[in-house]
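Lecture notes, continued. The same structure-token format from the folding unit now serves as the input rather than the output. Read the line below as a description of shape only.
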């Protein structure tokens, strides 16, 4: 089970990398707007809130791990079908298109990650 999890994380990291470097070139405000509308309610506008008291604060997560976690929420079918809190993030991510996903990921990496990029 653990090795399947690692494979998923690895695959997502490899796939997500070219996309996020592409998004880095786009200088716009999209990521900030998405975060403020769709994420800050649970994670805090400064990334300093533990969502539902169970997530880590975004300011405590490294940039690469943010990418891994967010990609996992968008690809893991078990999480998507899970009810309750486990399914919460998958539903958030499912509402974003590819470009919005990359923009908001870049935003949280640049503004909150322990190793801001
Ligand atoms: C309705 C509340 C809610 C909203 C809105 C929400 N999240 Fe979350 N988020 C959660 C919860 C709950 C968890 C913990 C899920 C888990 O560990 O299974 C989480 C986990 C995360 C994590 C991983 C944190 C960790 O502990 O590893 C990241 C990164 C994240 N969210 C980013 C986002 C982004 C980006 C958005 C906006 C697109 C967003 N969240 C919107 C509730 C929310």
């Amino acid at each position: 089970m653990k090795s399947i999890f690692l494979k998923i994380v690895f695959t997502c990291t490899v796939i997500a990398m070219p996309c996020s470097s592409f998004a880095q070139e786009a200088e716009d405000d999209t990521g900030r707007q998405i975060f403020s509308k769709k994420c800050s309610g649970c994670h805090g506008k400064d990334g300093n809130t533990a969502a539902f008291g169970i997530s880590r604060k975004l300011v405590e997560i490294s940039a690469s791990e943010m990418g891994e976690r967010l990609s996992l929420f968008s690809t893991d079918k078990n999480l998507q079908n899970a009810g309750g809190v486990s399914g919460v993030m998958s539903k958030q991510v499912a509402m974003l298109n590819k470009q919005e996903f990359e923009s908001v990921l870049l935003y949280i990496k640049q503004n909150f990650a322990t190793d801001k990029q």
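Point for the exam: The pocket of heme C is lined by residues 38-39, 41-43, 51-52, 54-56, 58, 61, 66, 69-70, 85-86, 88-89, 92, 96, 104, 108 (CB under 6 Å).
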